[in-house]
Design brief:
17 strands; 2 helices; Jelly Rolls; signal; hydrolase activity, hydrolyzing O-glycosyl compounds; ConA-like_dom_sf; ten-stranded mixed sheet; hydrolase; Beta-glucanase-like
Length: 278
């Protein structure tokens, strides 16, 4: 009888261990396809962003960056850009700087890191209120085919405060851009865009660009084989994070001054590449 009980206990212990292992295994990150992490920022050190990864873009301040934007982008100002408790906070304030009535930040990896063909994933919470225009996007490291829009632009995520439950993703090329009424992009409903953190993802291969929100695919732009005028996306691009105020898109319904300051929060941003692209 004693041997039977001992054997039964061993069986139960083994079963428990197997079940425990299976449970733990289900909690492991699932690696889908062959994307490999090559660059990231978890924003886990309080203070200003890591200067080895990010710079501050200010070149377009005087002329509104070509979009008639209302903000002045500052440099290393903790009132506009600060990491706290693992979150990057890009804050737009109502204050007069030079010729502008608002301040904010535009972070870029230009001249520090850029990639040709990649997957970008960012977890972020967006501001709300008329006049806000946050974005996660990419521009060419070198304008191989000429100035905008000839060398392209990839908008991973854009949002405007007057339409708080919607985000959109677009591309710009010489053949497809809003200046000639041919811009290609798509929007998707996201009711919790301004109240919760959501994951925005872009996958870019030689043949197409795909956009996702919380793993839900909503936009694809394909290489149609018609040359760089339609597909300039065969060169390296760098990342940009910014919170614009007003402008041709963000300011279509005015700017509500009563709601400032506004904050665009980013939990992390990660870049992956396939082995053959590295």
């Amino acid at each position: 009888m004693k041997k039977i009980l001992t054997y039964s206990l061993l069986i139960l212990l083994y079963t428990s261990c197997v079940n425990s292992k299976e449970q733990k295994d289900t909690n492991k990150p699932v690696v889908k396809n062959d994307w490999q992490l090559v660059w990231w920022d978890e924003f886990d050190i309080n203070g200003l962003p890591d200067s080895t990864k990010w710079s501050y873009a200010t070149k377009g301040n005087e002329y509104g960056w070509g979009n008639n934007e209302a903000q002045w982008y500052t440099v290393a100002d903790t009132d506009n850009c600060f990491i706290e408790d693992g979150i990057l906070k890009i804050t737009a304030k109502k204050e007069k700087i030079s010729s502008k009535n608002y301040s904010s930040v535009r972070l870029t990896t230009k001249d520090k890191s850029s990639w040709r063909y990649c997957k970008v994933e960012a977890r972020a919470k967006l501001p709300t209120g008329n006049g806000t225009w946050p974005a996660i996007w990419m521009m060419p490291a070198k304008n191989s085919y000429g100035g905008w829009p000839k060398s392209g632009e990839i908008d991973i995520m854009e949002h405007v405060g007057f339409n708080p439950d919607t985000v959109f993703s677009t591309v710009h090329t010489e053949k497809f851009n809003h200046m000639i009424g041919t811009q290609v992009g798509k929007k998707t409903k996201l009711p919790e865009a301004t109240t919760n953190f959501n994951i925005y993802t872009m996958e870019w291969d030689e043949g197409e660009i795909r956009s996702y929100v919380n793993s839900k695919h909503f936009f694809t732009f394909k290489n149609n084989g018609e040359g760089y005028e339609a597909w300039p996306f065969d060169q390296a691009f760098h990342l940009i994070l910014n919170l614009a105020i007003g402008g041709g898109l963000g300011g279509q319904k005015g700017i509500d001054d009563s709601l400032f300051p506004h904050t665009f929060e980013v939990d992390y941003i990660r870049v992956y590449q396939r082995k053959e692209s590295q």
